[in-house]
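Researcher: Please generate the 3D structure of the following complex. Treat every line as part of one assembly.
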Amino acid sequence: MTATTERPETTGTTTAPVLRMRSVTRVHGHGEAEVVALRDVDLVVVPGELVAVMGPSGSGKSTLLTLAGGLDSPTGGTVAVDGEVLGSLGRAAVARIRRRSVGYVFQDLNLLPALTAVENVMLPRELDSTPSRHARREARAALAEVGVRELADRFPDEMSGGQQQRVAIARALVGPRRLVLADEPTGALDSATGEDVMRVLRARVDAGAAALLVTHEARHAAWADRVVFLRDGVVVDSTGSVPGADSLLDDGTDDR
Amino acid sequence: MSIKQGLLALLAVEPMYGYQLRQEFESRTGGTWPLNIGQVYTTLRRLERDGLVAGAGADDEGHARYELTGPGLAAVDGWWTTPVTRDAPARDELAIKLALAVTVPGVDVRGVVQRQRTETVRALQDYTRLKRREPGGDERDLAWTLVLDNLVFAAEAEVRWLDHVEARLARWPAASAPAAAGATTSADAREVAR
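Model: Done. Output below.
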């Protein structure tokens, strides 16, 4: 693990940010055709924290996610994952961080139909030269963690949508990866199954991962510790850290 | 609503006294709508006057119990078989506030919308945190989960409506002035998001 410039690491369970975005700007094109997709965004996600980004289409939320995952580079500002500033690294080093530290869950699951659940989950680890037997063991552990241990040897078309999404989450979490990036992970699932998926993601974050979730659905964003609102590429507001939920019932009778 | 309907439905289970009715009502709805005991007794007296409940004597500890009459039982059956009507919308402070915001000069409507959205999502986070506790197996846990879901979906609907209001404002020609005001406040708001 790499030490950050922010704070010296003392233990394995550090609270140093897993993701830190500083004044991040992304401009497409130039001159007349210039489009600012993201302007001056600051965002930090620490271990054990689920942050949701809400905004209408065109607000820049998907751009934010691709920048956080090193799939695109900002035109201004910096993105650091596990303390390493992506812009200061070569292509190969960024690719290595992407594979080792970052997991993605997309709306379209991208499970490979010719591979079983366990093979899908172990794939990113094998691409990262993890020995096959070790990768398989990790993959089984990840599947068990999201509650689909028994589906390990099934193919995607033998699973329900909710089960496939759990497998996709297991694939995003397998191995030592600590940052999960999710783009509308509940996609086309019905509301009860979508809630199960959010529960799984939440449990994984409570166990120490950091996650950034992009969604336009308030019901899913509400599983986050913090909700950030994006409009026209700018962060316009945030729910901040929230007081204990136990105050809910006591406050139920006031005149808000 | 329907304290009246609620009490009748509970009395269809068995005869109960006032305090017991209040406890049953609250435990089945997760304490979301607390009743005061005065309301319960006032309602029981009205129901008795209207012939829907009748005294059923006292229990061993001297509590005066009530039971359903025939018409009372029919009223409960009627409640289950009739949908709740929505024809007289409750006065909604937020709808009124926004209706006035777009008609009173000088109000930063987008600011009103965003502040409300943040607040409603915050409430949604509170409800969701309560949902995170794994529900137990009994029917009261199910009842409480359903009530929570109701709060969640209502808050979500409010956020969707706010999104819609915002989109409509953006398309409204006269709304260009408030749009500029919204841009100045957003720079301040960025500080909030660390």
